[in-house]
Amino acid sequence: MPVAVAVLVLTLLITAPVALGAVPAARHHRPVSNLLIDAQEFSLWPSRASVPAGTVLVELWNRGQDMHDAWIRRLGRGGKMVGPVLGRTPITLPGHISHATWHLRAGAYELYCSMPGHLALGMHAKLRVTRA
Ligand SMILES: [Cu+2]
To answer: For residue 94, what is the domain's CATH number?
Structure first.
């Protein structure tokens, strides 16, 4: 019996620091999420309606025949875009995928294509960023 207790204590001593260290480290990591945006004439379809606040790795897949991009701005109380552009992808040629890294805080956002006339033709979508 004393041997079993000794083994148990030894096991706890060996594993406890690792277990204790893992939890705070995980808490300090800001979430990184992926967002695929499907673009074509004339719509933008994000792969998810919401992402956690933090870093968002964006892929814009242009499945259309025109050039497209994706910009993002906050939505104000009236449902209109307010403030500066907080993220953008490069202008993307038909059939290509472009990448961008955005850093977003919690709130309501609108994604849209900045090519002339495309927003009015329907290339926009809402994105909610939740508290991490
Ligand atoms: Cu467009």
So the answer is: 2.60.40.420
My answer on whether 18 and 73 are in the same domain is: no
Q: How far is ligand 1, taken at its centre, from the CA of residue 32, in Å?
A: 26
Tell whether 125 and 60 lie within a shared domain.
Answer: yes
Identify which has the larger pLDDT, 10 or 66.
Answer: 66
CB-proximal residues (5 Å) to ion ligand 1 = 68, 113, 115, 118, 123
Over residues 83-131, the pLDDT tens digits come to: 999 999 999 999 999 999 999 999 999 999 999 999 999 999 999 999 9
Q: pTM for this one?
A: 0.77
Q: Are residues 41 and 14 in the same domain?
A: no
CA end-to-end span of the chain: 47
